[in-house]
């Protein structure tokens, strides 16, 4: 009986410690400057997440989103698992959609994702606007044949502008370069497949795009 009691007490202590760790991770307040990011690392992970998304590698995308949240936003372990879940879930809810009504089912998780980013951001932004504009560029990209040239670049710039508190015009280069990367991926996928050389070109454009964004949002 004494041995069993000791085991039970030890187990309860482990559970209590785990619960305290989880609660601390989820609810401990902290702030980061979201403009202070490593553009090249974000671009590397952006390319990786594109590849995971199009290959339907849900777990891999979840892991890469978690890495981004850890390295760029400094989310603690359990909180980044939750926020990465919101990101990955919204992406694949959207991916499986066939209409705007389907696509909008991704919005609740996008709101949760941007609420978490907002809560740790040293600078304020409109969570609802950020979530809706994120979804909008996803839709413009999906329905690109129904849009004019330049619409995707503008939608991308609008979405980032809402988060970083700058004008959309200041992010034209970012939006244009990222849209060009998407065009390569889409065109190559439709004409036989995306090669490693194509992915290198995409990665280069994404590096240039994220560096342009970093420069624009940190301009004095």
Can you walk through the features of this model?
- It is a single chain.
- With 220 residues, the protein is mostly helical.
- The chain has one domain (31-217).
- It has 10 helices and no strands.
- It has helices spanning 2-27, 39-54, 58-73, 77-95, 100-103, 107-120, 127-142, 151-164, 172-190, 196-217.
- The longest helix is centred in the first third of the chain and has 26 residues, at 2-27.
- The chain starts with a helix and ends with a helix.
- The model has no long low-confidence stretch (mean pLDDT 95).
Bin the strand percentage: under 5%
Low-confidence stretches: none
* Count of spatially separate domains: 1
Helicity range: over 70%
- CA radius of gyration is 20 Å
The helix-and-strand class reads mainly alpha
Calculate the terminal CA-CA distance, rounded to whole Å.
69 Å
Tell me which oligomeric state these chains represent.
single chain
pLDDT averaged over residues:
95
The main pleated sheet reads as: none
Mass-distribution shape: globular
Secondary structure: number of strands: 0
Tags for this model:
globular; mainly alpha; 10 helices; 220 residues
What's the helix and strand layout?
Blueprint (H helix, E strand, L loop, with lengths): L1 H26 L11 H16 L3 H16 L3 H19 L4 H4 L3 H14 L6 H16 L8 H14 L7 H19 L5 H22 L3
Helix pairs in contact: 2-3, 2-10, 3-4, 4-6, 6-7, 7-8, 8-9, 9-10
């Amino acid at each position: 009986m004494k041995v069993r009691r000791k085991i039970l007490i030890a187990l309860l202590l482990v559970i209590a410690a785990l619960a305290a760790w989880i609660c601390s991770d989820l609810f401990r307040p902290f702030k980061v400057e979201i403009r202070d990011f490593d553009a090249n690392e974000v671009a590397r992970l952006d390319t990786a997440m594109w590849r995971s998304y199009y290959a339907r590698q849900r777990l891999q995308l979840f892991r890469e989103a978690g890495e981004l949240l850890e390295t760029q936003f400094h989310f603690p372990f359990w909180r980044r698992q939750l926020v990465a879940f919101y990101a990955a879930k919204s992406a694949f809810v959207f991916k499986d959609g066939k209409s705007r009504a389907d696509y909008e089912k991704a919005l609740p998780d996008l709101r949760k994702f941007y609420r978490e980013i907002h809560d740790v951001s040293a600078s304020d932004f409109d969570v609802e606007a950020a979530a809706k504009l994120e979804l909008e560029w996803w839709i413009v990209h999906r329905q690109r044949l129904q849009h004019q040239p330049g619409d995707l670049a503008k939608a991308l710039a609008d979405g980032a502008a809402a988060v970083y508190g700058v004008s959309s015009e200041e992010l034209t280069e970012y939006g244009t370069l990222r849209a060009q990367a998407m065009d390569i991926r889409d065109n190559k996928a439709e004409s036989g497949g995306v090669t490693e050389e194509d992915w290198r070109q995409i990665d280069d454009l994404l590096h240039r795009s994220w560096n342009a964004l970093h420069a624009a949002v940190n301009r004095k």
